[in-house]
């Protein structure tokens, strides 16, 4: 098929490269000139394991094109246009910022081809789409939804082997084009209405941080009770109804999606109309976890008479260079405010505004070394060497 992908971020680029490697022709459009120029020079603008290899593949690359102008797209031959623009939280109104989506839909609305299946991959409540459609003069029933569930760090694997595919819409003909596009994927496809398709996305992104917050609260309780964290969590997680997967304590959770999607879920209802006490407190539980982590580190620093802390891992989780809502950056600031000499080390990320260490080998003083998430064995070996050389203390939250 001939596809257009609007937005070449994590979702757009992975989706487009994935479909191009399956033989489709993919035209990407992004307003960010630097990104598009990199892509045209065969450079991937961010780190995602496996993406570079697929992107550089000669056959795949020859089926892709990149532009900053909607006028360069051959709209007459386009079957599906995937909208993959960002939908951040607008801090002023504490609700989703739809301006990127509005600008993309305005462009598509100018195209004279009603056969194009306009598919929103961005995470956005359907009632917000309705408002945007009204504003740009588009029929909301023309829009289909295909929420994205990829995890940064394993996004390529998630594209080729998703847990499920969800499509939502009111036009059976348009949905059948999406089913055709996905027909080679050996996985359950859920076809539903627009609201339900987005609720699947939002509730998945509610349950996951809920689970992470549960395990963090469990870790706080175990610490307070002077229990053995590993034994307790293993004992709980081995219950087959609970499971050990995705059941690891952390300094706090973050990322580009969970925080903003949770805020939006809380915007779905007016207090008093539907009682959701659990869901409405997940963010607060996570805020408490960052503060608790800083208090925990402070007590270790004081007990051990150390003044320097090294946080290993700048991104919000392993195998990505995405710094959006990274707990490391929040915890760094809180430690600095307490006058601890604080450093960050990350093999993949350059940090200009932070005290970052280029080489672990440069460490000569005793430090508190904090692993923000598990690291590869080669890095762990280096950390162990430094730890022994400087008599540093290692802290891992899990
Ligand atoms: N990142 C994830 O792990 C993930 C996972 C699932 C769903 N999502 C959702 O997918 C959407 C995209 O997320 P992302 O992380 O890929 O975002 P991103 O910020 O990495 O990329 C968005 C891209 O869209 C471009 N853009 C903005 N307005 C445009 C316009 N009018 N025309 C063309 N290009 C435009 C931007 O320049 C940017 O390159 C969001 O709604 C997000 O919630 C993200």
Description of the structure:
By secondary structure, this protein is an alpha/beta fold. The chain folds into 2 domains: 2-191, 3-Layer(aba) Sandwich (Rossmann fold), CATH 3.40.50; 203-395, Rossmann fold, CATH 3.40.50. Helix content is 42%, strand content 14%. The protein contains 14 helices and 14 strands. A 6-stranded parallel beta sheet has the order 3-2-1-4-7-8, with helices on both faces. Strand 9, helix 8 and strand 10 (189-192) form a beta-alpha-beta unit. Helix 5 (99-109) packs across helix 6 (126-136), helix 9 (194-224) runs parallel beside helix 12 (282-304) and helix 12 (282-304) packs across helix 13 (327-337). It is globular, with a radius of gyration of 23 Å. The relative contact order is 0.09. The site of nicotinamide-adenine-dinucleotide (NAD) has 27 residues, from helix 1 and helix 5.
Key structural traits:
single chain, 398 residues, alpha/beta, Rossmann fold, 2 domains, six-stranded parallel beta sheet, four-stranded parallel beta sheet, 42% helix, globular, binds nicotinamide-adenine-dinucleotide
Number of beta-strand segments: 14
Rg, alpha carbons: 23 Å
Helix content: 40-55%
> CATH class of the largest domain, anyone?
Alpha Beta
> What do we call the CATH topology of the largest domain?
Rossmann fold
SSE sequence, one letter per element: EHEHHHEEEEHEHEHEHEHHHHEHEEHE
Going by helix content, strand content and strand pairing, the class is alpha/beta
CATH architecture of the largest domain: 3-Layer(aba) Sandwich
Mean pLDDT rating: 96
Number of helices: 14
State the separation between the terminal residues, measured CA to CA: 46 Å
Shape: globular
What summary fits the major beta sheet? 6 strands, parallel
């Amino acid at each position: 098929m001939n596809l257009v992908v609007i937005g070449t971020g994590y979702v757009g680029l992975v989706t487009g490269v994935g479909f191009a490697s399956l033989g489709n022709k993919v035209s990407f459009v992004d307003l960010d000139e630097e990104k598009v120029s990199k892509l045209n020079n065969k450079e991937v603008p961010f780190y995602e394991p496996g993406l570079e290899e697929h992107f550089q593949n000669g056959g795949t690359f020859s089926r892709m094109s990149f532009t900053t102008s909607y006028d360069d797209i051959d709209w007459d031959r386009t079957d599906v246009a995937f909208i993959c623009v960002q939908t951040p939280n607008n801090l002023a109104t504490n609700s989703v910022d739809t301006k990127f989506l509005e600008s993309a839909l305005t462009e598509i609305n100018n195209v004279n081809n009603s056969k194009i299946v306009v598919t929103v991959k961005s995470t956005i409540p359907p009632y917000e789409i309705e408002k945007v459609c009204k504003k740009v003069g588009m029929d909301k029933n023309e829009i289909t939804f295909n929420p994205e569930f990829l995890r940064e760090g394993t996004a390529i694997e998630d594209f080729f082997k998703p847990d499920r595919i969800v499509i939502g819409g009111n036009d059976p003909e348009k949905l059948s084009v999406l089913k055709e596009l996905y027909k080679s994927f050996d996985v359950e496809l859920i076809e539903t209405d627009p609201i339900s398709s987005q609720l699947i996305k939002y509730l998945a992104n509610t349950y996951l941080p809920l689970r992470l917050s549960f395990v963090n609260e469990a870790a706080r309780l175990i610490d307070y009770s002077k229990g053995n964290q590993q034994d307790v969590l293993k004992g709980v997680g081995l219950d087959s109804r609970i499971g050990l997967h995705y059941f690891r304590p952390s300094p706090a959770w973050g990322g580009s999606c969970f925080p903003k999607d949770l805020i939006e879920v809380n915007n779905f209802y007016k207090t008093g109309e539907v009682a959701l006490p659990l869901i409405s407190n997940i963010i607060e539980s996570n805020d408490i976890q960052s503060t608790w982590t800083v208090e925990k580190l402070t007590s270790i620093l004081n007990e051990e008479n150390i003044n320097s802390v090294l946080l290993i891992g700048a991104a919000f989780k392993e195998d990505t260079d995405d710094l959006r809502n990274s707990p490391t950056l929040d915890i760094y600031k809180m430690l600095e405010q307490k006058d601890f000499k604080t450093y960050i080390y990350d093999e993949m990320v350059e940090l200009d505004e932070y005290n970052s260490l280029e080489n672990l080998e440069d460490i000569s003083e005793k430090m508190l070394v904090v692993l923000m998430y598990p690291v590869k064995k080669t890095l762990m070996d280096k950390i162990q060497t430094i730890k022994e050389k400087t008599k540093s203390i290692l802290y891992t939250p899990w």
